[in-house]
């Protein structure tokens, strides 16, 4: 089962990685993108806790980077939030 919101987040994070100003940020964003690609295709979707951890990391990156990277990360976070609305629980 594909989760389009998470696929969109992965693609947007890859775009953010390509716009990053330094190698460390680029690597962190590429890692997040890869993880969301896997989550989008996994047999079971991620729970709220896992998504919250990702959101925390992404918010930290956006705060540190600013500019175009922050805008792209914010767009990815919106996709993640849209997916979270479909997850049962908290």
Fold and architecture overview:
This protein is mainly α. The chain has one domain (4-84). It has four helices and no strands. It has helices spanning 4-19, 23-41, 48-65, 67-84. Helix 2 runs antiparallel to helix 3 and helix 3 packs antiparallel against helix 4. The longest helix is centred in the middle third of the chain and has 19 residues, at 23-41. 31% of the residues are buried.
State the main characteristics.
single chain; 90 residues; mainly alpha
For the record, give the distance between the C-alpha atoms at the N and C termini, rounded to a whole number.
22 Å
Helix and strand string, N-terminal first?
Answer: HHHH
Rg: 12 Å
The major sheet is characterized as:
none
Tally of domains:
1
What's the total count of β strands? 0
Shape: globular
What would you call the structural class?
mainly alpha
Strand content is under 5%
Which stretches are poorly predicted, pLDDT < 50 over at least 5 residues? none
Question: How many helical stretches?
Answer: 4
Mean pLDDT across all amino acids: 94
């Amino acid at each position: 089962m594909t989760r389009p919101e998470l696929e969109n987040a992965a693609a947007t994070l890859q775009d953010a990685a390509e716009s990053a100003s330094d190698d460390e940020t680029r690597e962190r964003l590429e890692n997040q993108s890869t993880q969301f690609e896997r989550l989008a295709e996994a047999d079971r979707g991620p729970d709220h806790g896992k998504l919250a951890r990702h959101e925390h990391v992404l918010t930290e990156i956006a705060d540190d980077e600013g500019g175009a990277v922050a805008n792209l990360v914010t767009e990815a976070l919106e996709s993640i939030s849209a997916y979270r609305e479909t997850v049962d629980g908290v």
